[in-house]
Write a structure and sequence with these properties.
Layout: H1 2-21, H2 31-57, H3 63-75, H4 82-97
Length: 98
């Protein structure tokens, strides 16, 4: 009986060893279907790379506009709507409390 179990285990181990050496069977997908399935993700990746490139080439701020605002503030001619500022501050406060 012990010999039968030992022989069965050796056969099992040999088969497992053969299975491990065999090349894995892979499911193949024809190229047009694969391109169609990943086409939208390729476009979004490309557009995000283009946006990143554009952002790297230009400063994130409009320096001229900042200069005009600074000048208007220093002259005292920059329009400040205190009601709008207080409303936004209060809205943001309420949003933080949620």
């Amino acid at each position: 009986m012990v010999d039968l179990i030992k022989a069965s285990m050796q056969q099992s181990l040999a088969q497992t060893s053969l299975d491990a050496r065999a090349p894995a069977k892979r499911k193949t997908i024809d190229a047009p279907a694969a391109q169609q399935a990943s086409g939208s993700s390729d476009v979004s990746i490309l557009s995000s790379k283009m946006r990143a490139k554009d952002m790297a080439e230009t400063p994130p701020l409009d320096i001229e506009a900042v200069g005009r605002i600074k000048e208007a503030i220093s002259k005292g001619t920059y329009p400040i709507d205190l009601d709008q500022i207080s409303n936004k501050l209060f809205e943001n406060y309420l949003e933080m409390r949620k």
